[in-house]
Amino acid sequence: MKYVIAIIQPDKLDAVLDELTKREVHLVTVGNVMGRGRQKGFAEVYRSHKEVGSLLRKVRLEIAVNDEFVEPTIEAILEGAGTGQTGDGKIFVLDLGECVRIRTKERGSAAIG
What we know:
The chain is of the alpha+beta class. Helix content is 23%, strand content 36%. The protein has a single domain, classed as Alpha-Beta Plaits (2-Layer Sandwich), CATH 3.30.70.
């Protein structure tokens, strides 16, 4: 079992979700986050003053998958979120020690679904 975390551009969310669906990965948690990487923020003009922000809006996807779905999940994110430009995001793959479905009390791979 693996826990896949991806940080992507907000406007790429629908494309990533479509790609995940094509690969039969349906269980996704999505949250709005802010952060910065190599882009180092942005500059904006507001009421004739240049204001520099250090954090950019991003979307965080969290996906728990069984081992056979790790590569399809990564491929879906790369396909849906990739533009080849700085700021496309990152994918992190972590070992998932345990998963428990609250309703049925199932554990492990069966609990992921």
